[in-house]
Amino acid sequence: MSPCQHLATVTNGPKPPGGCRACLAKGDTWVHLRWCLTCGEIGCCNESKNRHASRHAAATGHPVARSREPEEMWAWCYPDEDFVDLEGPEIWG
Ligand SMILES: [Zn+2]
Ligand SMILES: [Zn+2]
Ligand SMILES: [Zn+2]
Predict the structure, then answer these.
(1) What is the pTM of this model?
(2) Do 7 and 84 meet the contact criterion of CB atoms below 8 Å apart?
């Protein structure tokens, strides 16, 4: 399998604070959080009922969302529909 080509198009910033903004606006809850590595938007995972991270990716075309859970070093690539391991590339430190 070839490595994800979309990682080269995004930047890894510091973990953003807060929860899923769309859920908070509605008073909803979530299971896990992801954050968009293109624009920094925080969304909830697909186990959450609102799936805001997926909906954000579909609406914007932003390809990669990283897990915001503690100690988790992976991201999900929507175009590839696969996990991306972030521990390898040194830019993801
Ligand atoms: Zn990819
Ligand atoms: Zn949400
Ligand atoms: Zn985004």
Answers:
(1) 0.87
(2) yes
What are the start-end ranges of the H helices in the chain? 21-26, 52-60
Predicted local confidence at residue 92, as pLDDT: 55
CATH entry, 19-92, from 3.30.40.10, 3.30.450.40, 1.10.10.10, 3.10.450.50: 3.30.40.10
Ligand 2 ion: Cβ-proximal residues, 5 Å cutoff? 20, 22-23, 30, 44, 50, 52
Q: What is the DSSP letter of 70?
A: T
* Cβ atoms of 65 and 36 closer than 8 Å: yes
Domain ranges in the chain are 19-92
